[in-house]
Each structure stands twice: as C-alpha cells, then as structure tokens.
Design a protein that fits this description.
By secondary structure, the protein is α+β, with helices and mostly antiparallel strands. It contains 17 helices and 13 strands. The protein has three domains: 106 residues, no CATH class; 168 residues, Nucleotidyltransferase, domain 5 (2-Layer Sandwich), CATH 3.30.420.110; 111 residues, no CATH class.
C-alpha cells in the first residue's frame, strides 16, 4: 500500500507524548488499530529437564520443572551396573523431556541412558537419530569445583529479600548438601545447561526462576521392575498410527488402570495422578490420608459440594507463563483475565478445604494455603481492570476512579480523538471525490498529519498537491497495529 502525507492548514495544539489516529471515509468511518490478540493457552505437557551423573557405583541427579520453577535433587545413592535399577525408576517417575549428562562417563552408563531416552531398538541400530532429548555436556562442566561455584552463585527466588551477598553462600549450603559429590555435579551440569540453552528450550515462554530446591525421597517408594509395571497395565500408552505425527509427548492412553481411574477435571490433576501412580508409596499414613479424601467425595451427602469444587478445579491451571509475561511487560488482556480466573477459583478451593479441614489431612493442608495475599491480588485485578473496555480495545484499561490524573488524561485523549475525527470529516468534504478516505495521525517528532491512501498507481507530483494542503512525503508502509502509518 502506498500512502502519502500532507499537513493541514489548520493549527493544532500538540500534546507531548500523545499519539492518535483518526480516519474518515465516504461515508464517515473511524478505524481503530487492533491491539495484540495473543491468546493465552496452557501447555499440554510438563517440561522437565534432568541431569544425571554416575561414578564409582553411585548415582546423582537433578531435575528442573519449568511449570513449578523448582529444582529436585536426588542425593547420592548406590546404583550398580549393568542394571541401573535406580536410574530406570528415576526415568519412569520423572519422565524428563530432556536429559543432560557427560559423554566421558562409563560406557555402560551412557548406553543405559541412551536406551532409556531413545529406546532399545534405536540404540541397537548403527546410526542414532538426531534428537533434542539427549544432550552431552563437556566434562569440564561436571567438574566438582566448577559445579560448587556455579551452585553458590545461582539466583534463588526463595531467598530472603534482606539476604546479603556474604550470607548467600551459607544460605545455599543450607539447601544443598555439597558433600554429595554426584548430586552436586548433576546440579552444576543442569544449571550450566539452563543458562546456555534456556531460550532454545522454551521459545521465550518460560523464564528460569528457581523458586525452591527440594530433595527427592526414595524411602517410601514401592519398587517394581518394568515387566511388573507393564503386566499390571497401570499405563498403556498408544502412539499415533501415523509416524510423521509421532512426538515424545503425544500419545493416547489405552486400556489401563490409569485410564479407568482418570476422572480429573484439569490437566494439572491428570499429571498429578500420573505421578502418584508411577510412584506408588508404602507409607501407610499417606495412603490413609488419600482414602479419607476418596471417602469424603463418594458420600452422597457431599455430592453438591464435590460438584462445585470440581467446577473450581476445572478452571485452575499453571500460571508460570503468565507471570513471566507480566514480569517482562508482555501480558495481554487474556493473560490478566486468566490470572484473575485462576486466582478466584483457587481461593474457592482453599475456602472449601478450610471449611472441611476436620475431614482429613489434605483438607487441612490445602486450607492452610489460604492467604490474604491471594484475596488482595484477586480484588486488585477486579477493581483496577475495566474488563469490558479492555476486551473492546484489546489492551489493559484502568477503571475510572482509581487515579484522578489518569482519568483526566483519558478525558483529554478522548477530546483529542473527537476533534481529530471532526477535522478528518471536514477535510474529506474538501477533498476531490476520488479520495475515499483520510486519516489524521500524530507523530511527536512532526505533529499532526493528514494521510490519504493512494487512489491509483504512479501518481505525479501535481496530482498529489491539493489546495490548502502542503505535501510532505510519500512512502511504502506496512499497516500493522504497532505502526503509526
């Protein structure tokens, strides 16, 4: 599209820092530039990156979850080759999307890792396929001293705000046992990989914030081999029949115990159930606590309450991506509305559990999460954000009465838009009939301009001159929301 700009003979009062456009056509029309219509969607899978390190018969591992922004560490544990039963159990429980290790470790260990990541048939073939699931880091990345230095300087979101640089190493030492050589090397390799490969892994959707550091406990886990797990048919994933549609995170659950029991109302609940069934516990107290919840939900007198809480749960999802967009100033209207919706339903779930905390341990645990901060955030979004105007204009609009200065500027901006629309209507009447529309724009460095769309190709200089108007320029432009012309 070719546009050329001319300034009107009328004088306008310029408002510094203000930008506006008004378009008038035959008949009169005002074109609003659309805003960002990026939709907010929840991830279908849980992104997990795991680093494993084995030496001298002991295994150490560390994994990072992008959705919860938590690091989980497996302390040094004996795992004998060639079976590597602990490693197999770890892969089955974590189900990592990407695995990091050192290529200089034991041949048997590397072979086992390849089998767990790529499959036994793939490893048996002569040529290994190109994949982004398995990454080999240089051996210097896993050097113990280098890993300790990297761990002591990692940025922790869970650290106290008043923590001084001198006290930071002591605080990190209280979270990470640096005497566990294998787990320290695994954690150091994980941090190095995240620092170098975060943008490629997440495509800008996540941010590497470490909100917590936790240790994986294997004390009360019921151990079972792969054959037992398959024969019990706890999980029965079925790949897509079309090979070109195959993906590591896309499979349909077949006839299995998980498929029969999965009545979850949210994706987060489905993931949690899969985790629980892949990590069967021997702790009797945990099993009895889960049975208390099941018994409560199966009682007929609680049916209306259970229906309401299922409705709340169906609207709860992970907000890590939304918080990253908010922090970087990239949040859209849909992000704000989704955050408010999640907060409102999460508060409803916590209030329900708080009211029934005498019914079981998990009700007490969830009810204790009810915090005034959640109420403040939800009420602030509801009070400050004008939802109808924000959806209409596709940008965050502050409600009236929040800030007097902002209200005054809004009134002034509305008046300017009204004036420019009237001026555009007046100018279109004085222009020749072949000019179908015109637009009033404001450029802070130039001033107010009248733009007219080119009505034919190869206009001459004489054809672009109009009585009472001064020709400024003609240019090729792309008409997108973020452009002024």
């Amino acid at each position: 599209m070719m546009d050329f700009e001319v300034t009107t003979s009328d004088s306008f009062v310029q408002s510094s820092g203000f930008s506006t456009t008004s378009t008038t056509s035959r008949p009169q029309s005002v074109n609003n530039i659309p805003g960002d219509t990026t939709s907010c969607s929840s991830a279908d899978i849980q992104e997990m990156v795991m680093s494993v390190f084995w030496r001298g018969g002991f295994l150490g591992a560390a994994c990072y979850c992008f959705e919860t922004s938590q690091i989980h560490i497996l302390a040094d544990i004996r795992d004998e080759m060639p079976d590597f039963k602990i490693l197999q159990c770890l892969f089955r429980q974590i189900q990592p999307s990407r695995v990091i290790t050192s290529g200089t470790l034991s041949f048997n260990f590397i072979k086992k890792v390849k089998q767990l990541v790529l499959g036994e048939e793939t490893v048996a073939s002569e040529e290994l396929p190109m994949t982004d699931k398995l990454h080999f880091q240089p051996s210097k990345v896993f050097v113990y001293d280098n890993c300790v230095r990297r761990i002591l300087v990692m940025d922790l979101g869970c650290a106290p705000e008043d923590l001084s640089p001198e006290d930071r190493p002591s605080y990190i030492r209280s979270l990470v046992d640096l005497s566990q050589e294998r787990s320290v090397c695994a954690l150091g390799g994980l941090l190095s990989f995240l620092d170098k490969s975060l943008a490629r892994l997440t495509l800008g959707a996540y941010e590497c914030n470490i909100l917590a550091v936790k240790y994986l406990s294997l004390d009360n886990i019921l151990w079972m081999d792969t054959d037992t797990l398959m024969n019990l048919q706890i999980f029965a994933p079925k790949d897509h029949p079309s090979s070109f549609k195959w993906s590591w995170n896309r499979s349909k659950e077949g006839f299995s115990i998980f498929g029969l029991f999965n009545q979850c109302a949210s994706k987060l609940g489905t993931r949690r159930m899969r985790t629980l069934m892949s990590q069967p516990t021997k702790d009797r107290y945990v099993i009895e606590s889960r049975l208390e919840v099941i018994k409560f939900c199966l009682e007929s007198r609680h049916a209306p309450v259970v229906k309401n809480i299922r409705e709340n749960i169906s609207h709860v999802q992970c907000v890590s991506k939304i918080l990253t967009h908010l922090k970087n100033g990239l949040a859209t209207v849909n992000h704000w509305l989704l955050l408010h919706k999640v907060l409102t339903n999460a508060i409803g779930i916590a209030e329900f559990c708080h009211a029934h905390q005498a019914s079981g341990y998990y009700f007490q645990q969830i009810g204790s999460c009810l915090d005034n901060v959640l109420y403040i955030i939800a009420q602030s979004i509801s009070r400050i954000m004008d939802k109808e105007s924000s959806l209409l204009e596709e940008r965050f609009i502050v409600s009236e009465g929040i800030c007097e200065e902002l209200d005054r500027r809004k009134v002034h901006a509305q008046k300017v838009c009204t004036v420019t629309s009237q001026v555009a209507q007046r100018e279109i009447e004085s222009l020749p009939p072949y000019v179908e529309s015109c637009r009033i724009i404001y450029v802070p460095e130039i001033g107010y301009l009248l733009t007219i769309k080119q009505w034919k190709e190869k206009l001459t200089q004489e054809e672009m001159n109009f009585p009472g108007l001064e020709f400024k320029s003609s240019m090729n432009v792309l008409e997108i929301p973020r452009c002024l012309f």
